[in-house]
């Protein structure tokens, strides 16, 4: 076994986990950037397992169906794997069926330079420091803590610094998810899911709040708020960092770039993302046909949130269609032009899908709740993990007599379409004129407000209103002329042309 491979990919510890579980069919999941070492890791793991006896078959997985940060249970099921060893960056979303073992890797970190940057931040800010990090830097936290304490002693200062802990490195599947409401609107889930949950503020004891996000966990006193802390992030400007910034958008945040060994306090580009998300919420309110994109088939609770989104959309008087297409892109979504907005159900770190090049916006389940719940206002809170939204409460269907709402996109009042179930049965008998008449504009006497009503309320209505509906066997035009023989030869000189 190559020493570097065994250390970087924690081969002995992985083999110990597999022996303890008695697993004989193991799937190794690698992201694209680590795939070059996959053969060497698999070979080293087989050698380590062979020394302990027993036959273990190891399979390498790459090119996951959805996102490499999630455990690919679908790919593992194709080879009847009993567990998955996940390498590289992970979102730590709970699995549904298979146990998982995580090897985060060891990205290089200059511990001394990082400790000096933390000391510099403590001098400039009077807030307590909360150290969060990408999981690939978790191995260096012990050395970082010791180096920082030594730097503080030599500098004769004693700042209060708290370090987040890694949530877990072994994950067991959640057998069930129970939703209960404690009367305060918070979600309570079963013990094994709560231990692995990615959501924020999942526990609150008499003295502390427990937070968990992006695979790390920390506690703060109930007398304190997250705004009282300076968040010191160690890592790159990636999806994990965006998750932290958007979730704690009221906090002061500093990022230490471990590659460049420098501090960055500019998060304005992520604040622009937050403002755009608000625009997409307003745009989604005007949609009548909504597509639900399934962005995961392994994260625990994804079926619950899909059903909840269906109920929410139906209660808002809109039509929904569930689409499973793997990783979405503009070409795939263009096949569904009737959908005016898409709701993307995926893990927290891939929930923000950039849809600037798409024909229709793509929003998160949290943004869908804001858009389709009448009277719901955005308070600045932002949630990326859909498990924070799972509830057992049934959505009440909105009354058709509700007042029109004002659309900031169209600059006018809008009346939502409330489709009746018996309307779906009689859709085939609707004439094209009846469909187009639904797009009404009513102007009042003062010419200062317009009321928009209706639009296509299903894909069938949308198809009927189109001028071209594809090739069909029915031909409604005049009888075609007889077949004529065309010109023969090459374009440079047809046979009937004179040279």
From TrEMBL:
UniProt entry keywords in alphabetical sequence: Iron, Iron-sulfur, Metal-binding
GO molecular function: iron-sulfur cluster binding; metal ion binding
Cofactors that this protein relies on: [4Fe-4S] cluster
Keyword hit for Metal-binding: yes
Superkingdom of the organism of origin: Eukaryota
Lipid metabolism found in the keyword field: no
Matching Pfam families: Diphthamide_syn (PF01866)
Family: Belongs to the DPH1/DPH2 family. DPH2 subfamily.
Protein name: 2-(3-amino-3-carboxypropyl)histidine synthase subunit 2
Native source organism of the sequence: Urochloa decumbens
């Amino acid at each position: 076994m190559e020493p570097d491979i065994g250390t970087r990919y924690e081969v002995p510890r992985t083999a110990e986990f597999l022996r303890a579980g008695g697993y004989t069919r193991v799937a190794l999941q690698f992201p694209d950037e680590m795939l070059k070492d996959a053969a060497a890791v698999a070979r080293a793991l087989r050698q380590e397992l062979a020394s302990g006896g027993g036959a273990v078959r190891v399979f390498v997985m790459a090119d996951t169906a959805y996102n490499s940060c999630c455990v690919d249970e679908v790919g593992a099921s194709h080879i009847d794997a009993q567990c998955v060893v996940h390498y590289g960056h992970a979102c730590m979303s709970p699995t549904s069926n298979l146990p998982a073992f995580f090897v985060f890797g060891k990205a290089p970190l200059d511990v001394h330079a990082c400790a000096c940057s933390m000391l510099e931040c403590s001098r400039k800010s009077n807030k307590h420091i909360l150290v969060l990090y990408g999981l690939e830097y978790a191995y260096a936290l012990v050395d970082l803590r010791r180096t920082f304490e030594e730097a503080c002693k030599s500098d004769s200062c004693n700042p209060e610094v708290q370090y987040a802990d890694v949530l877990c490195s072994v994950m067991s599947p959640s057998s069930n998810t129970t939703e209960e409401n404690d009367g305060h609107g918070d979600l309570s889930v079963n013990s094994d899911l709560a231990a692995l949950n990615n959501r924020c503020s999942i526990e609150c004891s008499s003295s502390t709040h427990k937070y968990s996000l992006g695979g790390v966990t920390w506690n703060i006193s109930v007398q304190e708020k997250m705004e009282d802390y300076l968040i010191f992030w160690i890592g790159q400007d990636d999806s994990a960092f965006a998750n932290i910034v958007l979730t704690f958008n009221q906090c002061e945040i500093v990022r230490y770039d471990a590659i460049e060994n420098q501090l960055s306090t500019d998060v304005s580009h992520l604040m622009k993302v937050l403002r755009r998300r608000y625009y997409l919420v307003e745009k989604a309110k005007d949609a009548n046909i909504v597509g639900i994109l399934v962005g995961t088939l392994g994260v625990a609770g994804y079926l619950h949130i899909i059903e909840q989104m269906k109920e929410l959309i139906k209660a808002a008087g809109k039509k929904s269609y569930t689409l499973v297409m793997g990783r979405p892109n503009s070409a795939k979504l263009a096949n569904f032009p009737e959908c005016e907005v898409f709701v993307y159900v995926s893990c927290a770190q891939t929930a923000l899908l950039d849809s600037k090049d798409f024909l229709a916006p793509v929003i998160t389940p949290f943004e869908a709740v804001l858009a389709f719940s009448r009277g719901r206002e955005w308070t600045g809170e932002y949630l990326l993990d859909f498990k924070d939204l799972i509830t057992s409460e049934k959505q009440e269907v909105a009354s058709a007599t509700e007042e029109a709402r004002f659309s900031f996109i169209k600059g006018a009042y809008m009346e939502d379409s409330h489709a009746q179930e018996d309307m779906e049965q009689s859709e085939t008998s609707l004439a094209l004129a009846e469909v187009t008449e639904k797009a009404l504009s009513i102007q009042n006497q003062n010419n200062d407000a317009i009321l928009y009503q209706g639009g296509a309320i299903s894909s069938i209505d949308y198809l009927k209103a189109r001028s071209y509906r594809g090739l069909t066997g029915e031909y409604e035009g005049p009888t075609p002329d007889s077949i004529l023989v065309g010109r023969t030869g090459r374009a440079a000189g047809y046979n009937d042309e004179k040279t």
